[in-house]
Amino acid sequence: MIIRTSELASAQEKLNDLTKQKAEILKSYSPGSLLHKLQESMDKTDEESETLHQQLLDKEIDLATFVQRYKKLRVVYHKRALTHLAAKTSVVG
């Protein structure tokens, strides 16, 4: 079967586009990228717990509500921190 030059060029262009998409997707799931995302989520959770603490100090929430929400946030934070530490120490290269 004879492949037309225009068909080959079109197919080659599509292949190049798909190769670029694949590279971008793989980049976003690289160990370094995942560690960075995990660090960002840790920082966000830490900020949320600090905001909650400030609300308690400003008497915007009662102690029982604070304890319940703060405990949940800190549990999430520490789980992420332990996961981050384990991943960071096990990543080779």
Automatic annotation (TrEMBL):
Family annotation (SUPFAM superfamilies): Endosomal sorting complex assembly domain
PROSITE patterns, sorted: VPS37_C
Domain of life, source organism: Eukaryota
InterPro entries, sorted: ESCRT_assembly_dom, Helix_hairpin_bin_sf, Mod_r
Residue ranges of every copy of the VPS37 C-terminal domain listed in the record: 12-93
Keyword annotations from UniProtKB, A to Z: Coiled coil, Endosome, Protein transport, Transport
Places the protein is found: Endosome
Major localization listed first in the record, in broad terms: other
Xref: Pfam families: Mod_r
GO biological process: one example: protein targeting to vacuole
Record flagged with keyword Protein transport: yes
Entry coiled-coil feature ranges: 8-55
Record GO cellular component, one term: ESCRT I complex
Family: Belongs to the VPS37 family.
Protein name: VPS37 C-terminal domain-containing protein
Organism: Ambrosia artemisiifolia
